[in-house]
Amino acid sequence: MNAFNASREIPATAEEVFAAFSHPERLARWWGPKGFTSTFSVCEFRNGGRWSLIMHGPDGKNYSNESIFAEIVPAEKIVIEHVSKPKYRLTIILSPSRAGTAVLWSQEFENSKFAESMKLFLSTANEQNLDRLSAEVISATA
Fold first, then answer.
1. Residue 37 banded pLDDT, cuts 50, 70, 90
2. How many domains does the chain have?
3. 68-122 tens-digit pLDDT
4. Could you tell me if 31 and 21 are in contact, meaning their C-beta atoms sit under 8 angstroms apart?
5. Cα dist. 117→8, 16, 46, 111, 120 in Å?
6. Considering the domain boundaries, does residue 76 fall inside one?
7. Domain for residue 21, yes or no?
């Protein structure tokens, strides 16, 4: 298994959810699992734009990340290519739902052995990331 899928219903419009990605200061507030913070050096939120950041873990370690915003369709879709190791493609789909917006989060790793060895952490981390996204969107729309 090298793909991890998660979903979340957020009581907000797709435009409101998309804004939590498209504004770098907001993205920095919620990106990453619980206990992590992020420092962005580059965040070019556009098709083909670079995204360079350091995630600061609760363990005191820093994790450098380099990505490309491969595809952005406002209020519908965001595709992120994580070009530093571990390499993966994250596809986020936003669609209207009865509760507001359904967020589908699909992360596919290039290295299936890595993905399998990190299965529990990655599944938990993706859920925590969605928790943090939900909190960011709800606080901005309250």
1. very high
2. 1
3. 999 999 999 999 999 999 999 999 999 999 999 999 999 999 999 999 999 999 9
4. no
5. 25, 35, 33, 10, 8
6. yes
7. yes
Residue 12, classified by CB atoms within 10 Å of its CB into exposed (0-12), middle (13-18) or buried (19+), is buried
Whether the bond into 86 is cis, omega within 30 of 0: yes
Residue 45 neighbours by CB under 8 Å, 6+ apart:
21, 22, 23, 24, 27, 51, 69, 72
Provide the H-helix boundaries in 42-118.
Answer: 112-117
Closest CA to 84 of 121, 106, 109: 109
What does the alpha-carbon distance between residue 94 and residue 79 come to, in Å, rounded to a whole number? 12
- Could you tell me which residues come within 8 angstroms of residue 123 by beta carbon, excluding any fewer than 6 positions away? 4, 6
43-56: string of b/e by CB count within 10 Å (b at 16+)?
beeeeeeebbbebb
Structural domain harbouring 27: 3-33+69-141
Report the C-alpha gap between 58 and 71 in whole angstroms: 31
In a domain, 110, yes or no: yes
Query: What is the domain-level CATH number for residue 98?
Result: 3.30.530.20
